[in-house]
Amino acid sequence: MAVRKIKPVTPGQRNKIISAFDTITSAAPEKSLLQPLKRTGGRNVNGHRTMRYIGGGHKRMYRVIDFLREKDGMHATVRAIEYDPNRSSRIALVVYEDGEKRYIVAPNGLKVGQKIMSGKDATPEVGNTMFLNDIPLGTVVHNIELKPGKGAALARSAGTYAQISAREGKYATIKLPSGETRIILTTCRATIGTVSNPDHNLEKSGKAGRSRWQGRRPRTRGVAMNPVDHPMGGGEGKAAGGHPRSRRGIPAKGFKTRDKKKYSARFIVERRKK
Question: Which residues are CB-neighbours of 169 under 8 A, at least 6 positions away?
């Protein structure tokens, strides 16, 4: 997994750094696992714009990803490593012994032809999905469930991972990529290894046009607006804008927005570092 710096023959390529795509083995996706993905343009069912700076972008098809990994005790063979336009990591096409094909989030180091497994009989090897109760302490994991049987919710983006630090009773203590430490039921599942494409954070688009291809429109700074449009707008010349805040007046730095009475607050052992 590496990045590639483009030769600066045009202004748009001067600062462009993209993935080398050296781990991808198949260019065409599996048609049976594709679904249409309709773009919203930032608008709701009534056609009203509820999110700004969204619109346009290249047409995509959604790859149906198996976040449950509930086919226990059955081996699956990795058929291909593919690119997914809907996420930062790579995805792997796996074929089970009964012939069923599924997409999974590809862990770093997963190879074509490798066999993976999930359930009680699985071993702590890269790509295998196990219950938190069976994974050795100190193991690096990703695709972690928050509720048993609901599917992976944590550590799913490129290069991320979490670590199992302790186990007590029916809970396991896990340190998450953000630095937060929380307890999760040991009946939840997690996949061994780190997520693929760890150099994703080194990529640079090189030009504004690539953001438009991804469906991102130009973002207007609050200080450049009028007072009627934003709390930080107005003033003569280039005014600083006062304290940074959102369009609705919520402070942007150092202000806690999490509900103190949220039911999951008791599962957090240590907050993420500021």
Answer: none
Using one digit for the tens of pLDDT, what is the confidence trace for 136-164?
999 999 999 999 999 999 999 999 999 99
**For the chain, what is the domain count?**
2
In a domain, 53, yes or no: yes
* pLDDT bracket for residue 31 (50, 70, 90): very high
Residue 270 lies in a domain: no
- The boundaries of the domain holding residue 25 are 3-201
Q: Do 164 and 234 share a domain, yes or no?
A: no
Partners of residue 80 on adjacent β-strands? 93
Report percent pLDDT > 70 for the chain. Answer: 99
Q: How far is CA 15 from CA 7, 198, 209, 247, in A?
A: 9, 20, 13, 32
3-state SS class at 163:
strand
Looking at residue 152, its pLDDT comes to 98
CATH number at residue 41: 2.40.50.140
Tell me: do 99 and 38 sit in the same domain.
yes
Query: Rounded to whole angstroms, how far apart are CA atoms 240 and 252?
Result: 15
Cβ(80)–Cβ(101) below 8 Å = no
Could you give the C-alpha distances from 89 to 50, 95, 198, 213, in angstroms and in order?
Answer: 28, 20, 8, 18
User: What is the four-CA torsion angle of 204, 211, 152, 137, rounded to 10 degrees?
Assistant: 20
Phi-psi label, residue 76: left if phi above 0, alpha if psi -120 to 50, beta otherwise: beta
